[in-house]
Specification:
Elements: H1 3-22, E1 36-44, H2 66-72, E2 136-144, E3 147-154, H3 161-176
Antiparallel strand pairs: 1-2, 2-3
Length: about 180
């Protein structure tokens, strides 16, 4: 997360935490243990490289076994989460082309690949990952009394709404625990 965003927010929340100390007396209902907390984390989200074993994610929707998924959907995939597909539109391209049939095992109704900005044409995505510069998700969480605010920044051009709905649902599950 850029420091120019974090620092002002942290200073504002710190000021909120210390504001009662600026007056002559604390508010009458303030709990003695009320305090400001902050935490941060960084995690590597670089997609894993495709292997036939990663086809297990697509069983049984796309085939009975991982090997059968690879046989039925022979399109080249570089990353394990890419949907299996049949390269019919432009087999020489070595990648999914809009219109190629694909197995939509999770019913999101679009082909899933790591889309990135730049390049020419549609469906531009990386052909490799750089281990010296991994994709990351960075989070910072602030808590004051019973209120928590979390900001998460990911190395990505964007996310489809279906994916955001899945993230929201998983977050709600964790918060209910």
């Amino acid at each position: 997360m850029p420091l120019f965003l974090v620092l002002p927010l942290a200073l504002c929340l710190t000021a909120l935490d210390s504001a009662p100390a600026l007056g002559s007396q604390p508010p009458p209902n303030r709990q003695e243990d009320a305090h400001f907390e902050a935490g941060a984390a960084v995690v590597d989200i670089t997609p894993l490289t495709y292997s036939i074993a990663s086809n297990q994610e697509f069983v049984p929707a796309c085939g009975a076994t991982p090997a059968q998924v690879a046989q039925l959907w022979p399109g080249r995939r570089l990353f394990e989460f890419e949907d299996p597909y049949k390269p019919l539109i432009d087999p020489s391209s070595g990648k999914y082309v809009l219109g190629d049939p694909y197995c939509d095992a999770d019913h999101v109704e679009h082909y899933q690949a790591p889309y990135i900005a730049g390049g020419v044409g549609q469906d531009h995505w990386p052909t490799a990952t750089d281990s010296s510069d991994p994709l990351q998700a960075e989070a910072i969480v602030y808590k004051y009394q019973r209120t928590q605010i979390a900001t998460v920044v990911i190395d990505s051009l964007g996310l489809f709404n279906v994916t955001m709905d899945q993230i929201r649902a998983e977050t709600a599950k964790v918060l209910r625990k």
